[in-house]
Inverse folding.
């Protein structure tokens, strides 16, 4: 059996562990993000990973038209409601759901899916959809890193908005009036 010298072992460990060199680990390319707000008495929390444009063609390129997309990177984006709400006028019970989209040039289909724990959209099953609804994308600012926001619309509604790569989408959530 061949023995490694101490300098060889030390050299190998420095190649594998940047922290051993006093370097901070690299930041993730698509860091975690979240947005929270309320629609009336219902709390809304959105969890996602934030991809960046980095000079790439996004719509119809990195994110193909006509295919289910996880609305971010890594795990599927999730949306949670603390109380029953209406999403684009349709009933949604309290709970946590995966949020997907099928982007198109002129229309996006958003999907609220009952299977919240998914990696990407690789195992997405349409049979788990709670609801689907269409929105029209609008021109947006040149946002480098995808961003969600929940904008209050008193008295008991909110707009869930996504902005990335010169495009903006939004949909409405309405809850019961706060007491």
């Amino acid at each position: 059996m061949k023995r490694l010298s101490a300098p060889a072992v030390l050299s190998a460990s420095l190649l594998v562990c940047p922290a051993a060199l006093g370097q901070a680990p690299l930041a993730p390319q698509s860091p975690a993000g979240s947005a929270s707000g309320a629609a009336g008495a219902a709390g809304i929390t959105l969890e996602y990973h934030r991809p960046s444009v980095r000079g790439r063609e996004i719509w119809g390129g990195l994110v193909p038209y006509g295919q289910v997309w996880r609305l971010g990177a890594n795990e599927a984006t999730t949306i949670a409601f603390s109380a029953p709400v209406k999403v684009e006028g349709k009933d949604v019970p309290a709970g946590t759901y995966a949020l997907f989209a099928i982007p198109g040039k002129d229309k996006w289909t958003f999907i609220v899916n009952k299977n919240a724990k998914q990696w990407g959209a690789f195992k997405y099953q349409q049979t788990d959809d709670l609801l689907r609804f269409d929105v029209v994308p609008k021109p947006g600012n040149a946002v480098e890193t995808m961003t969600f926001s929940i904008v209050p619309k008193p008295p008991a509604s909110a707009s869930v908005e996504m902005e990335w790569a010169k495009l903006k989408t939004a949909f409405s959530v309405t809850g019961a009036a706060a007491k």
